[in-house]
């Protein structure tokens, strides 16, 4: 069985391409996830304990088609694809369904969650009641895989991540959605470094095809910024890959524990046709030349 949640859109969700911004989809998934977990508890007659909570371990988000603003809600179906001793995985589909049953899928996503004790911040096992509550929505599938990145600091673009008070969730941690926003800002900063080497070419837009984020440790509010490091690790004919990490170092110091990592596939995009495109001749070569040895050595 799948759980359905109808999510209203907001005008502020739209980006400069007149599409729903990639960060906002993760916000929608959070709303759908909360609705599903509430439905699980209600169906099983299980009450939420004050000291128990769930933390997001990983998001895997595949963007299938651009979603434009509309006054109707967008539909989200969610189900349980894996139940383990100390975690469970939810799969999601964000879509629009026409009267004739035709479905346009905008996003497919997977979210891994782990229970923990709020007082101590330590992980715990899923209780038997919790497992029973999830089972009606279970349709077990493939296992989620860790996000692997390689971000050598000597080649990486640095972006200081300044946490805002409004970024925090009810656990006083930075909300999982905000990490996507941090990585977005870091990604834009890293791409800006390339502009000088691409001055002879028209602007080439890009959209996200895949975004995977893994959460390793909480980010909390503090006066000092955290550090985001990003590298373009691959350039294809129609796409490129950006790998990033957020660390707890300050002031651009290369040391520091890794708090989150991200791997994003960007597809070059024609704004007029609203389709993927091959950049003009020489663009890829100029981009590789600007990047230097980092990409060519991989």
From TrEMBL:
Cross-referenced InterPro entries: 4-hydroxybenzoyl-CoA_TE (IPR050563), HotDog_dom_sf (IPR029069)
Domain of life: Bacteria
Species this protein is from: Nocardioides simplex
Protein name per UniProt: Uncharacterized protein
GO molecular function: fatty acyl-CoA hydrolase activity
